[in-house]
Design brief:
The protein is α/β, with parallel strands linked by helices and 374 residues long. Helices cover 39% and strands 14% of the residues. The mean pLDDT is 92.
């Protein structure tokens, strides 16, 4: 790069580069922060808030004094609540039978003797997400983001009282306006291409719509672009659309640090083998539309006679043990894995620092090339 890549986001968050890395892995998040971006740890996998507290203690010691963020999932409408055992009673028997029969057809073995079935991702429960926030407020995180819109007003107020910024993901301009009105500091415009929970509008259309929508009396609220961003040219495009930075998730799934989160090589093998057309947007993962790797497991849910996915959080509770079995099967063509359409660019496993360096170099080259057109 001929010059450092800096935008107003850098001063706002205290980072070197306007790249936010969202990940369920504390090792990836810490590495992104050490490399000059902002690592954001996804908290939804932590059913036990004490485990999250321990992981954030680790983050505090391993980010090299650099800022980091956390991401929670607090739906606008409070979903069904209760312990996993109680919620299990709300799951229809036909859904349980379908899952078991599908696993048999896919040749997925049961869990080994002595292996404990997971409770599912309870982090999608409003009460658990609140506990995640309570834990995070006890740590020096710079940012709290909510994956499903603006957090409740008291959460925003508590974060601001501790000097933390609040971000929310938006899939429509109207969502972004409501988020800003609620007190959110940063809007993440997440396009259709993104992995995980995502909306129906593509990034090229969505980002400028949201940038234009969040102009208030004191100026434009910072907007990050998410979805379809896996190289420096795409970062440059996001900046051209009016974003002050990017929010990236899928790109970190094939890093060396991410491999420390899972002992299942089939996950990264499936990602490395996938093309940009090998994803599907479905409700089978959590009960809300989410983009996943398309494979034999997702295909089974699209066959005639397959039941409709349940609402959040019942769907994830339904498939939680199935996810364990699918992951342990060692079959890359059945892993239940959220991933964005940029997966086709993910062709090798590299350290986070190397990925960051490449992104910055590519962005600088793209901006330099565009400057020659004037």
């Amino acid at each position: 790069m001929s010059t450092p890549l800096r935008t107003p986001l850098c001063d706002l968050l205290g980072i070197e580069h306007p790249i936010v890395g969202f990940t369920p892995s504390e090792h990836v998040a810490a590495a992104v922060s050490r490399a000059g971006g902002l690592g954001v740890l996804g908290c939804v996998r932590f059913n036990d808030p004490a485990e999250l507290d321990s992981v954030l203690d680790w983050m505090d010691k391993n980010t090299g004094g650099r800022p980091y963020g956390i991401d929670v999932v607090m739906p606008a409408r409070v979903p069904a609540e209760g312990a996993a055992r109680d919620l299990d009673q709300l799951i229809p028997a036909e859904h349980k039978d379908f899952v078991e029969q599908t696993l048999l057809k896919l040749g997925v073995p049961p869990l080994p003797d002595g292996a404990q079935a997971a409770d599912g991702v309870l982090g999608w429960l409003h009460s658990i997400a609140r506990k995640h926030v309570e834990v995070a407020l006890g740590h020096p995180a710079r940012l709290i983001a909510n994956a499903l819109g603006p957090p409740p007003p008291d959460v925003i107020a508590s974060a601001h009282d501790r000097g933390m910024l609040v971000a929310a993901l938006a899939g429509k301009a109207e969502h972004a306006r409501r988020q800003v009105a609620s007190g959110v500091d940063i809007v993440v415009a997440q396009g259709y291409e993104a992995g995980g929970h995502t909306g129906e509008i593509a990034s090229m259309v969505l980002v400028p719509e949201i940038v234009d929508a969040v102009v208030d009396a004191v100026g434009t609220v910072p907007v990050l672009a998410a979805g379809g961003i896996g190289c420096g040219r795409q970062i440059a495009a996001a900046l051209a659309l009016g974003a002050v930075g990017v929010w990236m998730g899928s790109a970190w799934l094939v890093t060396q640090e991410y491999a420390q989160l899972t002992a299942t090589p089939a996950v990264q093998q499936a990602l490395l083998e996938a093309s940009s057309s090998d994803t599907v947007r479905s409700r089978i993962y959590s009960g809300k539309p989410a983009r996943l790797l398309k494979n034999r497991w997702t295909d089974a849910w699209e066959q005639p006679g397959a039941p409709a996915p349940l609402r959040m959080p019942l769907q994830n509770l339904l498939v939680s043990e199935a996810h364990q079995r699918l992951m342990r099967s060692g079959q890359p063509d059945v892993v239940p894995m959220p991933a964005g359409q940029i997966v086709g660019r993910m062709t090798e496993i590299r350290p986070v620092a190397e990925v960051m360096a490449t992104l910055l170099q590519e962005t600088g080259e793209a901006l330099d090339r565009l400057n020659t057109l004037r």
